[in-house]
Structure formats: structure tokens, C-alpha cells
Predict the structure.
Amino acid sequence: MINSFIKYARELFGAGFIPLHRPVFEGNEREYLVDCIDSNFVSSVGTKVIEFENRVADFTGSKHAIAMVNGTAALHIAIKLAGVKPGDEVISQALTFVATCNAISYAGAEPVFIDVDLDTMGLSPTSLQRFLERSAEKRSNGTFNKLSGKRISACVPMHTFGFPCRIKEIAKICVDWDIALIEDAAESLGSYVASRHTGVFSSMATLSFNGNKVITTGGGGMIITDDSELAKRAKHITTTAKVPHPYEFVHNEIGYNYRMPNLNAALGCAQLEQLPAKLVAKRTLFDYYLTAFEPVKGVNLMAEPKQCLSNYWLQTIMLNADQTQHRDDILKATNEIGLMTRPVWRLMHQLTPFANCPRMDLTSAEQLEQRLINIPSSPSLLEIVE
Amino acid sequence: MINSFIKYARELFGAGFIPLHRPVFEGNEREYLVDCIDSNFVSSVGTKVIEFENRVADFTGSKHAIAMVNGTAALHIAIKLAGVKPGDEVISQALTFVATCNAISYAGAEPVFIDVDLDTMGLSPTSLQRFLERSAEKRSNGTFNKLSGKRISACVPMHTFGFPCRIKEIAKICVDWDIALIEDAAESLGSYVASRHTGVFSSMATLSFNGNKVITTGGGGMIITDDSELAKRAKHITTTAKVPHPYEFVHNEIGYNYRMPNLNAALGCAQLEQLPAKLVAKRTLFDYYLTAFEPVKGVNLMAEPKQCLSNYWLQTIMLNADQTQHRDDILKATNEIGLMTRPVWRLMHQLTPFANCPRMDLTSAEQLEQRLINIPSSPSLLEIVE
């Protein structure tokens, strides 16, 4: 199976080194960066930041967008503004990038791990409902974990690898249980549920523009929200909570230095112009993979859920349940020959810092960890295969 | 006095808008940014980050430099790595930018405000010694505040506006009392005590490359240290505490997403090449100010302390003690005509989030707040005056 996997991958891509995800700079990147330098505004104030925010807000169909240094900072602030307090619990998935759980811990809270769905790889509304019914109770001042006695103040599901999770069902449960919902849309810029962009199903969602994402600002992240008050708060608290004044320096709460520099936003503006083309390329790559790997037995390519559009950020194969013994050999063999692949992240409850966090049955997450492999996903791969 | 102040400033600069501090991009900025895009590495991995770190380490005479998203992040990590634990107290000055105190609070600790020296505007070793003798006691497990019962685990003095504080005396006291010392050198790149760069008198120091600083990376900061183990820890914890592996994602503690992107480091490399020239320009500007304001009664230009070199980041005038009633009028009048000036930051103990922190007598800080005004300091002003 490994050999046939490599054979078909090599037929697609030839013999060179193939990274997992490589950014492409084929638009106005160089021009906008030079403009930014010429404008003399490279730091946290500048027209490019505003332009980038407005364009992402338009693209996602959100009223407001607040650009930050990275997706982790955006998660931290969203969790804080959602009302999470030290000592609270925040529901999330064990199958996620560590930033989700780090951000929860920056707010002094603890993640609670709920299982994911096998098909979406995102938080399972069925597991969420089951956990809340069994372990939580609604009180006048919020929903509490009956076992730990702690308040469950927020829920942070992720649209894993750009594949939308069942966010509408999750949102309904969170409303019923009076739990703040924050979509971790770090990986899903360009992914939709029905015709609505991921991230607009919750009061706040977070995006990432890290180097490996669909578009990049070097380092960058964002909160999107329709709530003007939250947007204002997010901007204030990420700008060191400085009270606006032409020359006085007064800060009215503990704030953060989290705003995206104008330089990085300039790169973002250029990248965003190419996003529609990148999304088409990534979708086309999926089609190539579908055809190329069709003869390979024992694996399936992950496809977008029904009525959803995935941005296909990371193309993902799933080994059949009886083929998991091949996972490590495939990873080893492909990486050794310069065909970059990777497993999903080590599950959060298996990491030392989160090993003692409360968790439910995580059978699906644990199965997926054994069965999933991300394969090369750069939109530029089309130039090779076409 | 206000009129004569404005008259002499206008004689120097003419009638245009004069910002407080404007970055200058007259070197290889555009080229290096384009190179960075061409290299395809814009994010947290890349040769420009390493090059920028090595060059700053060389410039400051430090063994290691770890580049981060901004100075606040660098302070946060330095404070954490110095061993500051939640519930501790950290000594600092009330006359500082809010980032110092925010970073202390991110670590779960509380600032204790000690007075500054009138001539350096930085932490006063005399006040520090007095505070420790009166209020602290050494125990087997550290130095404790006798009144609050809390451990005093670190001391963070700042080289205010680039003027070196009495860091050698402070360092000696910190050694005697077994308190970790972290120099906040955010404003003092290019400032020296005798022939040693500020920041090398403590186990770790932090720099800032914000847009208003002597050199800028858009947003950026750095820890410099001679301690290889601390440098390694700083790099690890700011890279999400990821355990190095070609494809596995394992994180062994709660980490941060704080590394400087390669794009910003590219800008930093170009800026650093111009640093010596900028320092000369700022020193020359000081000389112009000295001559131009000589006839203005009631104010003095702040000069570098003896045996020290200031980078003259922000040029600063001090009103005579009997002239403080003019401060607000000068600020108002100058800003109204586009000649940017500003007072020092609102003192930390006067800000809501830090109003209840322990503090000593702060007479000098309070005096300086009434007497100091920062005046236009861009190195590019030389083009106007010369």
C-alpha cells in the first residue's frame, strides 16, 4: 500500500521536494510592501491595516474585522471578550492545533475535551449535547460542570483543515445552554456552510494568516464579528487599552500589544486579491488527488461535508480502519523521499500540559489520529500536475 | 515662555508638521522585503530572522538574541523565564510605558513601584535599597515583602527614553537580595553605560522595534542574553513549545506564538545597517536643540548621564520646578500648530489597573511627570535644520 501510495504521488508530482503547504506570491505583494515603506507607516497604525480588515470583513460577510499579530492572539482576545474568567471551563476538541488550548489557558481557564465527528473532523454536536446533558446544569448565573463545580463559559469548535464542522447544530446547543460560542476558523478562510462563510455562526470567530495558511501576512490573525461593541472592545484591548488622546498616555485596563503591523497587512491585501484563484486551485488539486489515488486500496480522500464548501486548506487522506498499522510507515517513507506528509496533531489530552483536563469519550478523535494523513496541499502544485 | 519655546522650535524646523518620531527607510528596506517574498519564507521560519538576531547580538555584545513579535512579548517571556510565579511581586518604576506592568501582570504577578532618579529618569538604586531594607526580608526560598507576605522575584528597571539608568548599582543590589534583574531596554538600543551596551547588565534584557523606535521592524521585540540555557528556553516557549520533529506535533508545555516573522526581520536587517548613522543624527539633533533652546528660560534639555551614551531616542526637556504650570499650555500650543510634543506617560500608579499596587514614595516620578516634555526626535529632522 505504501508503495502504491508513493507511486501515484510521484506520478502526480515528479521527483522534486514537495512541501506540505507553500505560500504563493504572484500578485501585488512586492508592490504593496514597497508602497508601505514609501508611506512611512509600517507599524500598528496605517491604511493597509484598515483596508485589510475591511476586505476580509467583506469577504466573510462580517460587519467587523480586527487584525492581530496572529491567530493565537485573536483566540486569546475572543475568549476573554466572550466573558471567560479564570477558573472557568471552555469546551473544545482534542483534535486541534495547540493554539486553541493555549489561548484558553491564557485566559486562566481549562479546556474540556469533547469528541469530534468522523466525517467533519470537527466538534461533534451529538457529543456536545450528551456531555451537557450528563455533566452540566444550568443555573441562574450560567452553566456549570456538576463534577468539577466550574462554570462552563464558552465553546470553541474548530473547522479542522478547512472542513466545516456542524456549526449550526453546535450553535443551537450553545444557545440552549447559554454558552458563548467562538468559531476557531483559523484554517477555514474560504470555507462555507450552505452559502455562509465559516465564522459567522458565532458572536466572534478567529482567523489565521500564518505562513502555512491559504493566505498569509507573515504572521497574522483576526477576529471577525457582527457585534459593534465587541469589535470596539477587541480593538481597544489589543491596542494596550489606550484611551484615545492626541498626546496623553492613559490606559484604562490591562491591555495587549496585539495589533497587526501595517507592513504585514500590506502583504495581506495582496494575498487576499489572489484568494479566489487559490481556492479554485486547491479545489482542482482535490480533483486530481481523487483521480490519482482512486486505484490505491485502503485509503480515502477526505471530501467536504454535504451542503458545505471546504477551502481544502490541507488535503487529507483517511486510512481504512483496518489499515492503521501503515500510518507511521507512510509518514516515514514519504518524508524520507521529500514528499511532505504529516499526521494530525498529537491529541490535546495526550500532551503533558493538558493531560489532566476534563474529557469525555474521545473514540472518534483517537481513531482519526490513527487514520488521518495530511498530504501536499499547495495551490502551486497545480503547475506541476497540469 | 511658551511663545519663546515655539519661536525657537519654528526657527529650527520651519512651518510644516513635525511628528514626534518618524521612522526613516533610506537603506535596503525595499530590496530585503522583495528578497524575502522571493525566498518564499515570510513567516516564523527563515534566514532573515536568524540574521537579524545574530546582528543585534553582535551590536549589543550579547551571546544570544531571540526575536519576537514585539517588546511586550519579550518582556512577558523574560519575566516568566526569570522565575516569576503567579502571586509574586515584581519591582518596577511608576514612570514607564504600560507594557512593563502589563507583562508583569500576564505572568500573574503584581508590580511594586519604586521611585526614579531625577537625572536618569530610571529606577533609583537609592530608593530600591531603601525599599528592600525597610520592607523586605531574605528567606531561604527568596526575598519576601514583609507587609504583603509575597515573594519579590524580579526587578525590571527601564532605560527611559534611551537614557541609561544606574544599572550597575541596581544590579549589585539585586545580587545582594537574590532578585532576578531584567533590563527593559525597549528604548535604549544604541545606549551605553561606560563602553557596554544597555541590556548586558542583567541575565536577560528586552528590546523593542516598534514603529516609533530608533529602528523598526513594523512590530517587533527581542530578548538578549548571554545565558545559552535561557536563550534556548526563550526560543522554545515562543515557538508554541513544539518539540522539534520533522512531522509530529508535540508540545511539552504551555507555549506562545511570539516569534518574529521573517518578513519583519527582513525590514529589521535593513534598518540595523543604518543604526550607527541614525545614532549620529540623533546626537547631532541634541546639539542643535542645545544651542537653539539656550535662550529659552525655565527649561533644560535632558543630557546623557556621566560616563553614559544615550541614543537620544526621545529628546526631552525638563521645566524648572517653578515652571510646571506651563506644561499643559506648551503641550496644547505645540500640538495645535503641528509641532508634536508629549508629556511622559501617565504614571503607572495613577492608572486604574495598577492603582492598588504596592508603592513607595514616588516624589521624583511625580515631579518628572509635571516637568518633562518629549519634543520632536526623528533623525530625519537634521535634513531640515542643517
Summary: Residues 24 and 110 of chain B are 37 Å apart (CA to CA). Residues 2-24+275-385 of chain B form a domain with the Aspartate Aminotransferase, domain 1 fold (CATH 3.90.1150.10). The first strand of chain B starts at residue 64 and ends at 68. The two ends of chain B are 25 Å apart (CA to CA).
